[in-house]
Amino acid sequence: MSDMSLFFAENVAQTEEVEVVVSDRYKDKEGKPVAWRLRAISEDRNDELRNLSTKRVKGKNGMQVPETDFAAYLGRLISECVVYPNLNDTALQTSYGVKGAPALVRKMLLAGEFATLAAKVQEINGFDRDLSEMADEVKN
């Protein structure tokens, strides 16, 4: 029989913050690129972000169907996972002329930088692994 206590909340390994250099345009006093700090989120919070990015639209026969705005969801997901810089800082948002963390991160980064950040956020949240990879790890 297996030990169910392995799955108890107090026995789960905590995820650590991850640093990633998203852009070489942001430099410290020594001229080195500044790393952004990221953290993973729970599926509960992910579901909340997805719901905030979903609206009901008319489908076939006038039926209301849910439609997720993927761009809005991705902006919210990234904003939720970025620890540093603080995307909720009012002064930082004001300096870019935007309100809200999702708008700020899009304004701060070039398209490729945003894609790099999005890929890392998805990776730390486990979206980069498929079930066959995890099954192979369990077998070994």
Quick recap of the structure?
The chain is of the alpha+beta class.
Plain-language structure description:
The two termini are 21 Å apart. The protein has 140 residues and is an alpha+beta fold. The chain has helices at residues 43-52, 70-81, 90-96, 101-108, 111-124, 131-139, and strands at 18-20, 36-38, 54-58, 64-68, 82-84. Strand 3 and strand 4 form a beta hairpin. It is flat. Helix 2 (70-81) packs across helix 4.
* Order of neighbouring strands in the sheet with most strands: 1-2-5
Rg of Cα set: 19 Å
- Helix/strand-derived category reads alpha+beta
Unreliable stretches (pLDDT < 50, length at least 5) are none
Total count of strands: 5
Number of helices: 6
Order of helices and strands: EEHEEHEHHHH
- The overall average pLDDT, rounded, is 89
